[in-house]
Amino acid sequence: MRSLPQISEAEFEVMKVVWNHAPINTNEVTEKLTRTTQWKPKTIQTLLKRLVQKGAVTYEKQGRVFVYTPLVREDEYVNHESDSFLNRYYDGNIVSMVSAYLDSDHLTDQDIASLNKLLSERNKKEGS
């Protein structure tokens, strides 16, 4: 598995915009993020520069604007971070994680029903 860049929470918010709208220029990223955050345009530009330096996105200059494209796939990054979380806090044991959520009443009846459905579908798929 290739090494993925470390992305801060703020950088992750920028990445979500890039993943959802790529190719996307600086002005479009700024416009989308100023609607959902309190960030100034300069902050967003700094976050974009950091993501370029980390190898998470690349850019192409088109006229007077920079157009950004992700170098890291969203599913790849989310899976990596999920595995990292599971390993760090639950020694890689998903049963321990789910048990902790059940014990602390973080899962609603609807959540439990959804998990049961997922597991049932998975069992049917594996049984085919």
Automatic annotation (TrEMBL):
<keyword id="KW-0804">Transcription</keyword>
<comment type="similarity">
    <text>Belongs to the BlaI transcriptional regulatory family.</text>
</comment>
<keyword id="KW-0805">Transcription regulation</keyword>
<protein>
    <submittedName>
        <fullName>BlaI family penicillinase repressor</fullName>
    </submittedName>
</protein>
<dbReference type="Pfam" id="PF03965">
    <property type="entry name" value="Penicillinase_R"/>
</dbReference>
<dbReference type="GO" id="GO:0045892">
    <property type="term" value="P:negative regulation of DNA-templated transcription"/>
</dbReference>
<dbReference type="InterPro" id="IPR005650">
    <property type="entry name" value="BlaI_family"/>
</dbReference>
<dbReference type="InterPro" id="IPR036388">
    <property type="entry name" value="WH-like_DNA-bd_sf"/>
</dbReference>
<dbReference type="GO" id="GO:0003677">
    <property type="term" value="F:DNA binding"/>
</dbReference>
<dbReference type="InterPro" id="IPR036390">
    <property type="entry name" value="WH_DNA-bd_sf"/>
</dbReference>
<keyword id="KW-0238">DNA-binding</keyword>
